[in-house]
Amino acid sequence: MSAISPDKIGPRLHILSDEQIRAIHEASLSVLEETGYHMPVTEARELLQAAGARVQGERVYIPAHLVEQALRTLRPVTLYNRSGEVALPLGERRVSFGALADTINVLDPFQGQVRSWQWQDQRWLVTVLDALPNVDYLQVVGQASNVPEALQTQIAVAETLRCTSKPILAYPYDRQGLRDVLQVVDIAVGGEAARRRRPCLFCASVPAAPLAGTVYSLELLLTCAEQEVPVLYYSCPALGANSPCSVAGTLALTGADWLAAVVLHQLKRPGAPFCTYGPTVQLMDMRTTLWSYCAPEALQAYAAVADIAHWYGLPAWGLEMICDTPYLDAQAGMEMAATCTWAMMSGVDLVHNVGILGAGKLCAAEAAVLADEVIAYGRASAHALPIAAQELQEGIALIAERGPGAEYVSHEHTLAHFHDFWYPTVLERSNFDAQGDRFGSHLLERLNAQARRLIENHRPQPLPPEVLAEIDRLEAVWWARARA
Prior knowledge:
With 484 residues, the protein is of the alpha/beta class. It has two domains: 6-16 and 71-382, Trimethylamine methyltransferase-like (TIM Barrel, Alpha-Beta Barrel), CATH 3.20.20.480; 389-420, no CATH class. The chain has 16 helices and 19 strands. Helix 11 links the parallel strand 16 (317-320) and strand 17. The chain starts with 17 loop residues before the first helix and ends with a helix.
């Protein structure tokens, strides 16, 4: 299978003009000045008030000049793997994909049944995700039914670090959780200085709703700025639910929400690493109240988010390669292909939640394997074509040599170049005999077989024994604290 480099993607789709983006930006500034942002953290309000914002109770009204000042101090972020090698240079406009390493429910790859997620599942799922070449980073939320809430993300991150060297996006539950996560990452990478110099961990701060920060989300934002932990901040609007029933209104609302976070973050520490722009836009299906990730309007909104992000000079975040259906079926394949194609065409730099089913409620190793194949297919079909004078002259000479009606199968040129094309790993391309009575295995069977092969045979890059022992000791301290 030929691997297509993510930095060789071809022309991009743009659905907003600069004038439209500027109008959205101005609308967001108006929302911040006139409606304001709910800030339930005293430190956050004091920082903003000292800088010139108007504060009434827990509502903060932010003037445009603070926004412009904050945007000027943002800098590009590069994320590394656990070994200190460049993994996600976010300023280079690559389309990268991240997979969720845990969720509420899991399809057991050996029993074939849906059950609640357990922390022991982290190892086999992360092993699969580590092996998949088109999964660029892992998201770790911490949602195990057999772990206390106070330890969720810590335990999940520690287990993930044992099984992958890929960058990790963590969702700590509180300030203490973030400090614990940083402590275990420091052990894995060789200390705080190494982690700050070549960060392999970045964190998400997610508010309750647009323009409504929580103690949790704001304290994480402030702590990440203080500790220089790369952070991404995003709200989760659903058209017609917690945001206006229009893409334009939602972009103005979520833009204001994001700008408020940037202002606060940069006031805390100017130049602190802030990764991306972008909300996760969904649409509430008024027939079922499901928040749809795959609605065509949501995909359009993500393309608009990418245009706005790049106008700000930042990578785009938001698009989720999630399926609305809970079944690994034709609908799942269609939805994966649609979201992947929109990501490639619109240039969403960080796509997340790859391979998750049931509108975010179910993970399956088989879905991750299929998503990896879809991404490989998408990268191969969207990459820039190498049409240059040298290739054309080589083609002319080859055609002249072979003449009309010739075959090229036996030519050395074909032998030298047929590996340049993409070949599937689990998708079907065999010669089908319509008159025969023998058929190959079903796709779902092949996906399960591949997932199990990876679980049983893939060996992630190991941490040194002394590092593993130190992580074990740290986990014991966490558990003792939780039981106290």
